[in-house]
Amino acid sequence: MSAAAGAVGADAVRRGVVKVAAAQMCSTGKVAENMAAIRRLVARAVEAGASMLFLPECALFIGSSAAETKAAAVAIDGAEVAELATVAADAGLWLSVGGVHTRVADSEEGKVHNSHLVFDSFGMGSPLAVYHKAHLFDVDLPSGIQLHESRATEAGNKVVVVGETPVGGLGLGICYDMRFPGLFAAMRAAGADVVTAPSAFTVPTGEAHWHVLLRARAIESQCYMIAAAQVGKHNAKRESYGHTLIVDPWGKIVAEAADSVVEDIVVADIDLDYLDSVRASMPVFDHLRPELYQM
Ligand SMILES: O=C(O)CNC(=O)[C@H](CS)NC(=O)CCC(=O)C(=O)O
Q1: Cα(135) to centroid(ligand 1), Å
Q2: N or C: which end of the chain has fewer CB within 10 A?
Q3: What PROSITE patterns has UniProt attached to this entry (predicted)?
Q4: Could you give the CA distance from residue 76 to residue 94 in angstroms, rounded to a whole number?
Q5: Ligand 1 center to residue 143 CA distance, Å?
Q6: If residue 271 lies in a helix (H) or strand (E), which one and from where to where?
Q7: Which CATH number do you get for residue 131?
Q8: Which member of 26, 57, 70, 80 is catalytic?
């Protein structure tokens, strides 16, 4: 075998095809019960042969007021986060936990971060990467839904792409972030192959926008999009749309959970050779004209 052929072979091994799982669940205000559900979902992902599992926003806790959310926030170096690291390590699985309310040390009002945590499968006890949700969901919708995420939460200020995961470069988003294409373009520019939008989407906005937004972000960024979702009634005030989704870089839905199933995983292959071929045949990032539309 020539040296050149050897190099191609090595690259193929690095890119390759990797199976992932995305969860759907209905978290409540009871952390211990949510943690038990996470353990069941992890076991199912292992059984399915996945290398990585993606859990939705609010996987550990979903509250019904800003006060509850602040009170339930965990320390990034605390017991709950360490437990998640151990769960991942014991299973030999990489884990994305899409939105954990974490304490902000210097917040005068006791506000939290909505943090997307990534754990590797080696069990170092702490997350490999942390992204703080940058766009906060402060809305007053015609359907009567009012949500003011900023009452409990401080926005993050950094784009985060984890370089070397089983699925290549992994861009971290959360829920409402999916409405901001600039964030996903920035992730692609920073090396993302897979982007994420773990969610607790409202039912009316989900019916109107969920599939369109997620497919559009995948098509534009030419990345796989993984959106693990909360589903069903969490408490008297909150209900989520479900439809956990995995979309390929051409915009095709490759896995979707039924909204009637309260606890489930869906699996799909992440094929980075296919991703490369999509990017090569339509090199949109070589055609950008930021001088025309940079804001
Ligand atoms: O409240 C928490 O504890 C965690 N945060 C959330 O669930 C957030 C803020 S209320 N939900 C969303 O961003 C939904 C976005 C959405 O539904 C849309 O963009 O249409």
Answers
A1: 10
A2: C
A3: CN_HYDROLASE, UPF0012
A4: 18
A5: 15
A6: strand 264-271
A7: 3.60.110.10
A8: 57
133 is catalytic: yes
pTM: 0.94
Q: Is residue 290 part of a domain?
A: no
Q: What is the pLDDT of residues 29-38, one digit of tens each?
A: 999 999 999 9
Residue 82: φ, ψ to 5°: -65, -35
Task: Please spell the DSSP secondary structure of 11-54, one letter per residue.
Answer: HHHHH-EEEEEEEEE---S-HHHHHHHHHHHHHHHHHTT-SEEE
7 in a domain, yes or no?
no
pLDDT digits (tens, 9 = 90+) for 194-206: 999 999 999 999 9
Residues 8, 117: Cα–Cα separation, whole Å: 33
Q: Which atom of ligand 1 is nearest to the CA of 61?
A: 3
Please count the other Cβ atoms lying within 10 Å of the Cβ belonging to residue 150.
13
Q: Give the total number of structural domains in the chain.
A: 1
Q: How far apart are CA 18 and CA 167, in angstroms?
A: 7
Average pLDDT value for residue range 254-280: 96
Q: Is the residue at 1 inside a domain?
A: no
Mean pLDDT value across the chain: 93
Query: Under 8 Å CB-to-CB from 62, ≥6 apart: which residues?
Result: 27, 28, 29, 200, 230, 234, 235, 238
Q: Is position 5 within any domain?
A: no
Range of the domain at 274: 17-283
Does this complex have an ipTM over 0.90? yes
